[in-house]
Amino acid sequence: MMEGMKLQKEKLNDFLDGLRKEKYLFAPQKEGESLQFSPVSEESQVELDFQNTIIPPKNAVFPQTETLFTYQIGKLDIELPEEDRERVVLGIRPCDARAMEIIDRLFSWDEDDPYYFDKRNKAALIGLACLEPCINCFCTSFEDGGPASTAGLDVLMTAAEDIFILQPVTEKGEQLLSEQDLLETASDDEMKTVEKSHAEAAEKLQRKIDTEGIPQGLPGLWESPLWEKVSGSCLGCGICTYLCPTCHCFDIQDEVEGFDGRRCRMWDSCMFGEYTLHASGHNPRPTRRERTRNRINHKYAYFVDKFDVIACVGCGRCINYCPVNIDILNILAQVKEEL
Amino acid sequence: MVDLEKLRQTAKDIVSRDDVKHIIGWKQGTYGFRVEPHFAAEPDEADALTFSPLCTNNLATYLTLAEKLPVPRGEEPDTRKVALMVKGCDSRAVVQLLVEQGLTREGVYVVGCPCSGVVDVKKVEKMFPDILEPAQAYWKNDQIVFQLPDGEKEVSREEVLPQKCLLCRYPNPVIYDELLWDEVKAWGSEDYEDVKELEAKSPEERWDFWKDKFSSCLRCYSCRNVCPMCYCEDCVLDRLNPTWTFRSVNLSENTSYHLARAFHLAGRCIECGECERVCPVDIPLMKLNRKLYKEVVERFDYEPGIDPEATPLQASYRPDDEEDFIL
User: Fold this and answer.
1) Is the CB of residue B95 less than 8 Å from the CB of residue B88?
2) In this complex, is the C-beta atom of B282 within 8 Å of any C-beta atom belonging to chain A?
3) Which of B189, B212, B233 is the last residue of a domain?
4) Distance from the CA of A96 to the CA of which of A67, A89, A279, B261 falls in 20 to 30 A?
5) Which residues of A touch B69 (CB under 8 A)?
6) Do A100 and A120 meet the contact criterion of CB atoms below 8 Å apart?
7) Cα separations in angstroms, B17 against B20, B21, B111
8) Is any Cβ of chain B less than 8 angstroms from the Cβ of A203?
9) Domain tally for chain A?
10) Shared-domain flag, residues A242 and A170
């Protein structure tokens, strides 16, 4: 593998322009008060000094709304969307990149989801090591997780004083870096400083969960009064799932305006009552108790059963943004007590 | 003055009654400045109840949010009262629910907590970042005092209160069965400066403003779900046949969603500001709601959520109504 490379911070914009020439570039930018991953254009102000974005970058490969095909009422033809372009997601946090690796397993479960993989296979992920973790981050609770984890990444980027260090992780990453002409080889000292900052960042994490026994034990707590207790205040909104980098559920709808129809899919949330509502009117998950139980079981038991990995990366978003302070670590701690 | 001892004792007495199911109040959350709703059904569970400038949630929403499963054959439905702790704004939701007959007076026992304004947690977390240890706060004259691991910090109310509290005209519960402590002096005045600021802009400028805000909406529906006045069992926005608002998340559908909600809240919004508090992308929804609030006050001389005997705005008619806005 190629050595660590460095980029002068003042040359960042030129570097981004270079990436943008051939590819679609997603990077965090200010949208109103908050940062979001969105396509970079000439006017964009890319912001790399942040903790994490509120909305995870899963949008870059799994858009919130995606047209599968369009059609005309009364005609038999369908029109497929244009093929997607090669893309680079720059500034993605290691937890969010790990999340993409996790949902890859779901989208390739029986057959590869063509819409997802059309974008995913064309995406190179340039991660940004997390040197100032958020208050509710718990990424180090997972085997591959950590503020400088390379799982799922093609390149790991770390901010140092006036340079960025870029370390290729995969061949794709190496290829991408070799195409750029603003990079220089980093010195041993610079690489050591970066390694030190990674270790220090991991020490800064304040929260952690020992997941030992949870995936095996959770299904046994099906009828536990715990679920009623932890879901009592749930509003049934979609914040925890929409802001989750591993949540991947979608709904498919035909939307017709005049004679123009489109079949599209959009993020859905298991916390909505409508999600499991049958056409008969029966709802197998009739209250927030069942929905909360499902959310936790799906991440910490069913997904493990099927894909051998916990579908949670410890980004802390569901804790940070829940309007009623439903705290997954608190729920898991109660689960552990009952095991 | 907030008296936590009295609050907990009152709650214990209430939940000990046979005709009360539980009391809904606030308790210390799992970290930092977070407070969470607490449902105490037994007297010992009432010990966790608290009241402070961190008690932001409007708990009245839980009166209508509970999903009721069909009662099994041979069993009687639970008709016990729900006891509820309310701030001034929250109490207006109770009144409006009574006005709309979404609730019966016998079904609820209201415990009033006069309030000097609750904080905007986002502002507080920005001011004191990375505090994981549960922190507390209390009111002291015109200050809010935060008890942090490294000592107490006093902050002026203006710095940490959300606008809905700075403008509040009803800090004292307008309906209650029991009031926990002395009423506080109201401070707000109704001049709608915030609404006038937007009204002064041209339609193009206003559209630019809202376009920007609505574009970032995720349609997580937290604003709708937290709203104590959004309690339709079958929400028009969930309808698929016919579909009034597509599920696609884009500016057009997001605008349709927010305008539908704003119209349905005209003459009903009680200004608790919960929609704005919970929004993960900071859409200033109260600007929309307050615009309609102002219209309703000016056109119909009607304020929702004040008088439990009132007729709902949409159901009221006055022969002397000028109707000069109808073409």
Assistant:
1) no
2) yes
3) B189
4) A67
5) 286-287
6) yes
7) 6, 8, 15
8) no
9) 2
10) no
Q: B-chain residues within 8 Å CB-CB of A266?
A: 247-249
Beta bridge partners of B37: B26
- My answer on whether omega of the bond before B242 falls inside 30° of 0, hence cis, is yes
**B5 and B110 housed in the same domain:** yes
Q: What is the DSSP string of B245-305?
A: S-S--SHHHHHHHHHHHHHHTTTT-----HHHHH-TT---HHHHHHHHHHHHHHHH---TT
**Is A38 contained in some domain?**
yes
Q: Is A131 on the interface with B (CB under 8 A)?
A: no
Cα distance between residue B136 and residue B35, in whole Å: 9
A260 interfacial to chain B (CB closer than 8 Å) = no
Same domain, A126 and A223: no
Based on the fold, state whether residues B115 and B24 are members of the same structural domain.
Answer: yes
In single-letter form, the type of residue at position A89 comes to V
Query: Could you tell me which of B18, B79, B8 has the C-alpha nearest to residue B45?
Result: B8
The tokens of B241 are what? 């046949």
- Nearest CB to B30 within list A242, A253, A330: A330
Q: Residue A319 and residue B167: Cα distance in Å, rounded? A: 30
CB contact under 8 A, B225 and A266: no
Which residues of B are less than 8 Å from A233 in CB distance? 36-39, 62
Q: Does A32 touch chain B (CB under 8 A)?
A: yes
Q: Where are the beta strands (DSSP E) in chain A?
A: 5-8, 24-31, 34-39, 65-72, 78-79, 87-92, 123-128, 155-159, 163-168, 184-185, 250-257, 260-267
Whether residue A209 lies inside any domain: the answer is no
Q: Looking at the complex, does the CB of residue A58 fall below 8 Å from at least one CB of chain B?
A: no
Question: Do B183 and B249 fall within a single domain?
Answer: no
Query: Which structural domain, as residue segments, surrounds residue B181?
Result: 1-189
Residue at which a domain ends, from B163, B189, B215? B189
Instruction: Please give chain A's pLDDT, 339 residues, in tens.
Output: 668 999 999 999 999 999 998 899 999 998 777 789 999 988 888 999 999 999 999 999 999 999 999 999 999 999 998 888 899 999 999 999 999 999 999 999 999 999 999 999 999 999 999 999 999 999 999 999 999 999 999 999 999 999 999 999 999 999 999 998 899 999 999 999 999 999 999 999 999 999 999 999 999 999 999 999 999 999 999 999 999 999 999 999 999 999 999 999 999 999 999 999 999 989 999 999 999 999 999 999 999 999 999 999 999 999 999 999 999 999 999 999 999
Partner-chain contact B278 A237, CB within 8 Å = yes
Residue B219 and residue B295 share a domain: yes
Q: Are residues A325 and A276 in the same domain?
A: yes
- A38 lies in the same domain as A129: yes
Q: Is residue A82 one of the residues assigned to a domain? A: yes
- A174 in a structural domain: yes
Regarding whether A141 and A255 lie in a shared domain, the answer is: no
Report the domain count for chain B: 2
H helices then E strands: how many in chain B? 12, 9
Residues A167, A244, single domain; the answer is: no
- Answer with the one of A186, A204, A222 that is the final residue of a domain: A204
Cβ distance A242 to B220 less than 8 Å, yes or no, reads: yes
How many CB pairs below 8 Å do chains A and B form together?
113
Which structure tokens are listed for B177? 């069965």
B residues 225..254 contacting A (CB < 8 A) = 225-226, 238, 243, 246-250
The model's pTM: 0.95
Which B residues 30-49 touch A at CB under 8 Å?
30-32, 34-39
Same domain, B28 and B170: yes
